[in-house]
Amino acid sequence: xxxxxxxxxxxxxxxxxxxxxxxxxxxxxxxxxxxxxxxxxxxxxxxxxxxxxxxxxxxxxxxxxxxxxxxxxxxxxxxxxxxxxxxxxxxxxxxxxxxxxxxxxxxxxxxxxxxxxxxxxxxxxxxxxxxxxxxxxxxxxxxxxxxxxxxxxxxxxxxxxxxxxxxxxxxxxxxxxxxxxxxxxxxxxxxxxxxxxxxxxxxxxxxxxxxxxxxxxxxxxxxxxxxxxxxxxxxxxxxxxxxxxxxxxxxxxxxxxxxxxxxxxxxxxxxxxxxxxxxxxxxxxxxxxxxxxxxxxxxxxxxxxxxxxxxxxxxxxxxxxxxxxxxxxxxxxxxxxxxxxxxxxxxxxxxxxxxxxxxxxxxxxxxxxxxxxxxxxxxxxxxxxxxxxxxxxxxxxxxxxxxxxxxxxxxxxxxxxxxxxxxxxxxxxxxxxxxxxxxxxxxxxxxxxxxxxxxxxxxxxxxxxxxxxxxxxxxxxxxxxxxxxxxxxxxxxxxxxxxxxxxxxxxxxxxxxxxxxxxxxxxxxxxxxxxxxxxxxxxxxxxxxxxxxxxxxxxxxxxxxxxxxxxxxxxxxxxxxxxxxxxxxxxxxxxxxxxxxxxxxxxxxxx
Length: 607
Description:
Helices cover 50% and strands 8% of the residues. By secondary structure, the chain is an alpha+beta fold. It has four domains: 105 residues, no CATH class; 109 residues, no CATH class; 273 residues, DD-peptidase/beta-lactamase superfamily (Beta-lactamase, 3-Layer(aba) Sandwich); 62 residues, Ankyrin repeat-containing domain (Serine Threonine Protein Phosphatase 5, Tetratricopeptide repeat). α24 packs antiparallel against α25.
């Protein structure tokens, strides 16, 4: 369509030509139009040039300029010009304003998305880096990337400084659960950055504020390339750690408002603790860590210590020797009952009587040359290696108070002495004091979570890779203490530490038990869970995209091969039976194409 007064000149212009004009005009290399020349220029071109000048002043890219011009022509083609040039120009101005308004809305959304992506790494970053880290060079921005550290640098670097900001690097690691400032595996990295900061500035520049060029960044990367590459490729045990943290936060918030239970009245030191304290710490077998709540509050282990002294005895001796003196079956009774099994032994090492016997084993059979006064210091040092070198405290007030309030435990000790349960020559009073000292060990949930993760990792500390228990045989899911602490072990996945003083009638922390129930409800942490028959539970070890792709392939293959039984299982598990692959093919498409009548009938009638 041609407007009046512009005969012989087409309104639709070449977009590429206008982009070129706008681009060259922004650099001052092209001839600009003046107002005196407008009579010889088509009306739309004049308006487009005005728009291009406005857009260029706002630093808008040329592709976005093309969108504005296209929107303008679409609106012009729907209008008929029957008035004078003023009317024509008014219509053009209105069309331009409408187009520019739409463009500004899109631009504001784009800016917000860019800011969000700058703050938090895109979920596809790991896959991008994995593709870039192949042995064959990949062309990116005209440069060849031949290894992972080059790819990582190009993704993390700032476009303005061409360097990697350490704050962003550390933040990205923390998003994957790797705590840069406290992880022992990154100690050499921290020392390298600290030395670099001191040499860069005399004012004590923080390592978070450093900007590393490519050479220094690769030097930093080489201090622990395995951990860094696994973290950024999302090859750790929980690949989608950000999503996992959000779910854990939901469980935490749901349980923190529970007001049931009261702190244990076993001793005054426990009864006087603030009942509103609630802390949860998680450490995976790959050293991914996350904490919520009052994680700086110290608490005594109490009965939780029985887990670690049993594992230590099992490592220092052997299973036959340890279970000569203590059983390994559930008692079906409370932990403090004065009862032995049919062999005149404690039922297992995790009840009070069993804990006393294990202390006697450590006292008499492990390093018997040590003095009794030295044995606790040795045991404390061994447990600190279990916690990656974190300091474990000792609460002397709780220890002394427990000595005057442990009549039942003392009765158990003498009852077992009467039945000759202990190793020959055991000093009963020294053994009992060691047992109470172990119960008075004090730590935070962060420390206990690392110790739990070591158990979950088969006795290897995830933060130091040191073998602590060479022959671990602790197969229990959880252990509680009357102080309100709880130790939870998810084998081959993670350890969880929970602390909340209010306990129930059997001395289990009320909030901790509720939190564990939420974990079991949301994740397949129970030994008898099946993801195939539960659409509500999820496996945090699996990547959601990979899991979805696996389900799609399985469903479509079942439809194409005529496996109605498998399709019924997918349907019962809650899967969307209309899900499609990259070619938009559904199970019904493939079943029909392959002539699988039973599958087609099942999909049409049942799904």
